[in-house]
Design a protein that fits this description.
This protein is 47% helix and 15% strand. The chain is built from 20 helices and 14 strands. Keywords: Cell membrane, Lipopolysaccharide biosynthesis, Membrane, Transferase. It is an enzyme of class 2 (transferase).
């Protein structure tokens, strides 16, 4: 079976070689790993022990960031290596100040796992959410290096918990300890005989709770908003943008900030063409005469890494992805006390279901429902009550990071 797994990893690398000339994201993935081992060997002193934190992408980084930063505070003398699988994480956090080194993760082959672990010489390792790489996990286990899974989450129906997934459970057994997000994940791990798990909660709540307490003013956005009511639309895709364009025709007095999920020339040009009275962030930021864009009612964010701070300007937030495979991060908006709207594909996300039950979030299936919800939120009392419930939910769920650090500190006594 693991022969087939390794063959799949090999074929994936072959696909990268074929697709790289035609896809910018794949090309970045490929180029980021060229000469990687030589780069690591030249920077990292393998004679010293390191703590390794791995994040699949930028989303997982934000989810596990509070643990990494609390770890540095409690264990200041530890050297930290951070790795990313995706360019979306590496490109934004390549110079992250809390890490001693930041690299791409080499592909999960037995040889790569052995060589990478030898180079960084980890004394303990943290993976976030549900990133499972069999060869890395096995190599760490064979070397008796503790491996922790932060904000682990599982769902009934995942192949690990089916009869045909039994052979893959060995990967799960290589984990030293699971810090689980919810009781369902604890129960599922128990059901296959794994007792090395504790219900600690989701560290994303700690991260977003911190955001609302440390708001960051963005001068360009403040100037754009200029006292208007604002809809901030984050991580949008084309179906989301089409709805927002139609909504704008009904509520032209609202200003709109759009931060698309894909920030490339083609997508940005498409948004430009759809929205009248629009301006890009980079244009407004570099404008010598800001008043030249005074009539703009749509601000298009053409960079990455700013979205979590943009929601502080929102009266209402729209989160993209709900008309695709699933919604993006809704907690970054909720933490600022903002009512949240998203599409119909949200059922894999407990926080979405919780916020809907609390009447702090609203799921829509079409433009008619979008307009109806937006009409409801025109009432300032309703809007504020929904926002207050969103803020309260985030605050109540925070605290996972402290539990994890307490466990780690206790294990050293």
């Amino acid at each position: 079976m693991w022969i087939l797994y390794n063959l799949g990893i090999f074929l994936g690398q072959f696909f990268v070689l074929i697709a790289a000339p035609f896809n910018a994201r794949v090309r970045k993935w490929k180029e980021g790993r060229q000469g990687l081992f030589k780069l690591i060997a030249g920077k990292v002193d393998s004679s010293k022990k390191h703590t390794w934190f791995h994040f699949a992408s930028l989303g997982e980084f934000e989810q596990g960031r509070t643990v990494l930063e609390a770890y540095r505070t409690h264990f200041p003398n530890k050297l930290v290596v951070v790795t990313f699988f995706s360019p979306s994480g590496y490109e934004v956090r390549a110079n992250y100040a809390k890490a001693d080194y930041v690299f791409y993760l080499p592909a999960d082959t037995p040889g790569n796992a052995k060589r990478f672990i030898e180079l960084i010489n980890p004394e303990e390792v943290f993976f976030v959410k549900y990133e499972f790489w069999h060869n890395y996990f096995k190599a760490l286990h064979n070397r008796r290096i503790p491996l922790y899974l932060v904000s682990a989450i599982f769902r009934k129906g995942q192949f690990y918990f089916t009869w045909y997934g039994r052979l893959f459970r060995s990967t799960l057994r290589y984990v030293t300890f699971y810090f689980a997000q919810n009781q369902e994940s604890v129960a599922l791990l128990h059901s296959i005989g794994l007792k090395n798990v504790s219900l600690t909660g989701d560290t994303r709540f700690d991260r977003v709770a911190h955001l609302s307490q440390h708001k960051r003013e963005i001068e360009v956005v403040s100037r754009f908003v200029n006292g208007h009511k604002v809809l901030v639309a984050g991580s949008t895709w084309l179906p989301d943008e089409e709805l927002i364009m139609s909504l704008r025709q009904v509520y032209p007095e609202w200003k709109i900030v759009i931060a698309p999920h894909i920030v490339d020339a083609a997508h940005l040009n498409e948004i430009d063409s759809r929205f009248k009275q629009s301006v890009r962030f980079s244009t407004l930021n570099s404008s010598v005469h800001p008043k030249d864009n005074a009539n703009a009612f749509v601000l298009i964010i053409d960079n990455i890494g700013m979205l979590s701070y943009l929601y502080s300007y929102a009266d209402v937030a729209y989160i993209g992805g709900g008309f695709g495979v699933g919604i993006h991060n809704i907690l970054e908006a909720a933490t600022y006390g903002v009512p949240v709207i998203f599409g119909p594909h949200y059922h894999k996300f407990q926080e979405a279901k919780d916020l809907i039950a609390a009447k702090a979030a609203f799921s829509i299936r079409n433009l008619q429902e979008f307009v109806a919800v937006f009409e409801l939120l025109q009432e300032i009392e309703i809007r504020q009550e929904a926002g207050n419930r969103a803020y309260g939910y985030v605050q109540q769920q925070a605290g996972a990071t402290a539990k994890i650090i307490d466990y780690l500190a206790g294990s050293r006594e």
